[in-house]
Design goal:
The structure is a homodimer. The first copy, chain A, is an alpha+beta fold. Chain A has 3 domains: about 10-285, BirA Bifunctional Protein, domain 2 (2-Layer Sandwich); about 295-405, Rossmann fold (3-Layer(aba) Sandwich); about 420-490, Translation Initiation Factor IF3. Chain A is built from 14 helices and 26 strands. Chain A has helices at about 10-20, 40-55, 70-75, 80-85, 125-135, 180-200, 245-250, 275-285, 310-330, 345-355, 365-370, 390-415, 425-435, 445-455, and strands spanning about 25, 35, 60, 70, 85-100, 105-110, 115-120, 145-155, 165-175, 205-210, 220-230, 235-245, 255, 265, 265-275, 300-305, 335, 360-365, 370-375, 385, 420, 435-440, 460-465, 470-475, 480, 485-490. In chain A, the strands form 6 sheets. Chain A has an 11-stranded mixed beta sheet, with helices on both faces. In chain A, α2 packs across α6. The longest helix of chain A is centred in the last third of the chain and has 26 residues, at about 390-415. The interface between A and B is large, with 63 and 63 residues. Chains A, B: Pfam families: HGTP_anticodon, ProRS-C_1, tRNA-synt_2b.
Chain lengths: ~500, ~500
């Protein structure tokens, strides 16, 4: 197995190689579309199941809406169309036929042209709100709290596995409410769910904030986001929650009779996270040996590797290993015993390091004699020899420790790489020499935001929800500002 | 709530009304595409989770492949293209733009025409085998046992909710093997999984069999199926498992070095079930009052309805009901306590009958005095009054009884509606007067099969795997036959 390119050598190349070598995903023969391989999909499934549980706990139900959206639906909400309907996959025909001039070849049947083109959903507000129109008559029909797990397509020109692909998997929540306040509360509640998920399960600390108007979701009144720092100091938007006001209700004429008997447009939210989270998970923790997975999302949490010469030794180790495997499984720990005799222990060690298995237990003949095992942690690459007796309890605790340590490591890294600056000169110097997130005053205008972006490639990631009031002057215009925004280069 | 059309009056109308009134699904604004509503989706989720568990137990892993398939991939496997690539959604462009002549309108940008058209997958053999080409070099890479949960699109002209829709949800297993025998065994194993799921979870008895050549999957060497009988006597194909031979390996040049060091094409299977199973579930058990759901797949297994006058009585009932709810939940039973005071008990009774909740517990003031509850079974509409004490144990057993009873009722119905006939006259008479499945001899030719189909609309559903050897003569040609096939009109 050829070594990975190191992060310091070429971070971008390291990421691309890691995704492929760790069997997470690969590019397909279809431009911009990826194949998510079983190991990658198993991690995504764990994310999905956990998020799904959290959505249900907060009162949401799943449903499924059509993948196609008639072109005219996009015309109803101008901003949304401007943001999404332009670069998309357009279905214009519904039949192929044999090419009369080239036997064995297929051509589009010109007689099977659709009257109205269909767009493969880039996001589902339009199709869902056109449906809600029939579901909502009275305040008694509200709230509607629906989530959808689905694939979506956006015609991206430059794609990267998980981070930006033409087709990706995601969930999109679409809720309808009787009051503005309730919709805003829902938007904020789901941001909390995302932040909680990112921190407790992905072990990725996030900054909760709101987007500037120019970075808002197309059609939203306010976009909330969680922003995570990758190991190269760049930001990755890990989830967004949008307060959509009455924009979609107006576009699709969704009115209800309120408690006072008056007709009113419904209030909307939408919120989503996608397979992009896989990119965040990989880039936040992994190292030059391969993936580092937090135990809560690792498809295999513990691997047991026997070190043996000959069948007799293997049989002896098998007995002990199977028993330990059983004890760990009884604790709900996912454990693999790899006693395949085709590959050497060293090969297996490297393989499970590459795959990010949090704990490796090695068992040799001497361990058997001494009633010990060797335990290796993937996150910090430390090893220790411990007594076999009750080792399952130790492992159970160790997995929690590793989860916390991975989170804390990412948190320290972030703390070291957020810099407060008070002048544009300092801003540019820090961005170039140190990178990371920069906390700075901004005058609130799109002009200053745009100028900074054009000159430095750094964008305003968010205005943190917990930003404290602080008088200052903005970087370029020198206008007064009362709190800091977070700037960074971003994925 | 208006009553359902009865099954005897108009079976087809009854089904369509039931699907909509029970909040399972509805037609969308997109031709042929349905919206699966939360209650319907919750049933599908339970099916999916159970099947997923069964697939993983039999060694399969999930993965995800692109939704788009380049047109040329279909040209590689001629039969598959013939069967699937013709009536499909064709993506020809990747951009819309503002219509310069009609402000607010969008048009397809003629400059954004794809070099090669993309087909929205109707099934994924082509894209998956084009990927397997890179994954398979040696017999050590085999078997590959992969499943995908996905949406697929087939341009159906006449659609019906769940039974036949342009877009539907399904799973598709795609496996690759080193030997023919192993692939055949896999095909048969997955048929067993489907049959087991249908019978134990859906409570729908199925006939396992093989399809005739003319009913085979496009590109398969052998198609195995499970066929279920609906209450109108018609057949519904509930799942298929295909032995694909080396057809796709040849089409996509997937070769491996076998144990003897020789290059060989891999052997393939594919197998799938879809949201069509929802249609089977509904039509197999439901009655004129609404859905009848087997407890294993019911999103709500037990509903508790209080019968009260005034708040004081409600408070007293609440106390007992919440305690009972807790005890049932502790047993893993999904239970809803509906103490909403907007709707009358009679309305609630009808509503939960419509939704197919297997067990309804009613609690009134007199029940409180007598320490009893009234228990109503949805499947046979019987009621009984029982002591409240330890009622949770009784309910737990009752749910199992109901599951068995629903299955046995369907089994008896099927037994009564399979008729053995020995002449074409008898065949036509039984089909017209009684309907159901007809067991008859067939000469094995496509001609006779076709003639019967054209003259009676009955098709050969399958040749049952357990058909016993029996000498006979075929219906029309009078040629000798050594076992019976199952004929029926079908969905």
């Amino acid at each position: 197995m050829a070594k990975l390119t190191s992060r310091s050598e070429d971070y971008s190349k390291w990421y691309n190689e890691l995704v492929v070598k760790a069997d997470l995903a690969e590019n397909s023969g279809v431009r911009g579309c990826m194949v998510i391989k079983p190991y990658g999909y198993a991690i995504w499934e764990k994310m999905r199941d956990e998020l799904d549980r959290m959505f249900k706990e907060t009162g949401h139900q799943n449903a499924y809406f059509p993948i196609f959206i008639p072109k005219s639906y996009f015309e109803a909400e101008e901003k949304n169309a401007e943001g999404f309907a332009k670069e998309c996959a357009v279905v214009t025909h519904y039949r192929l036929k044999n090419d009369p001039e080239n036997p064995g070849k297929l051509i589009v049947d010109p007689e099977a042209k659709l009257e109205e083109e269909l767009i493969v959903r880039p996001t589902s507000e339009a199709i869902i709100w056109s449906t809600y129109k029939n579901w909502i008559q009275s305040y008694r029909d509200l709230p509607i709290l629906i989530n959808q797990w689905a694939n979506v397509v956006r015609w991206e020109m430059r794609t990267r596995l998980f981070l930006r692909t033409a087709e990706f998997l995601w969930q999109e929540g679409h809720t309808a409410h009787a009051t503005k306040q309730e919709a805003v509360e829902e938007t904020e509640k789901m941001l909390e769910v995302y932040a909680d998920f990112a921190e407790r399960f992905m072990a990725v600390p996030v900054i909760k904030g709101i987007k500037t108007p120019s970075e808002r979701f197309a059609g939203a009144e306010e976009t909330y986001c969680i922003e995570a720092m990758m190991q190269d100091g760049k930001a990755l938007q890990a989830g967004t929650s949008h307060f959509l006001g009455q924009n979609f209700a107006e576009a699709f004429d969704v009115k209800f009779t309120n408690k006072e008997g008056k007709m009113e447009h419904a209030w909307a939210t939408s919120w989503g996270v996608s397979t992009r989270l896989m990119g965040a998970l990989i880039m936040a923790h992994s190292d030059d040996h391969g993936l580092v997975l937090p135990p809560t999302l690792a498809p295999i949490q513990v691997v047991i590797v026997p070190i043996f010469k000959g069948e007799e030794q293997l049989n002896q180790i098998n007995e002990v290993a199977f028993e330990l495997q059983g004890k760990l499984k009884a604790k709900g720990i996912s454990v693999k015993y790899d006693n395949d005799d085709q590959n050497k222990p060293g090969w297996k060690f490297a393989e499970y390091e590459l795959k990010g298995v949090p704990v490796r237990i090695a068992m040799g003949a001497r361990d058997l004699e001494n009633k010990t095992v060797e335990i290796a942690r993937r996150d910090n690459l430390t090893k220790e020899v411990r007594p076999l007796e009750n080792i399952e309890n130790y492992i159970e605790e160790l997995l929690k420790t590793i989860q916390n340590d991975i989170y804390n490591k990412a948190l320290s890294f972030r703390a070291e790489n957020i810099t407060e600056v008070n002048s544009y000169e300092e801003f540019k110097k820090v961005l170039e020499e140190k990178g990371g997130f920069i906390s700075a005053h901004w005058d609130g205008t799109a002009e200053e935001e745009e100028q900074i972006k054009n000159e430095t490639k750094a964008t305003i990631r968010c205005i943190p929800l917990d930003a404290k009031a602080e008088e200052g002057v903005s970087l370029i215009s020198g206008r007064p500002s009362n709190r800091r925004a977070i700037f960074a280069k971003a994925y």
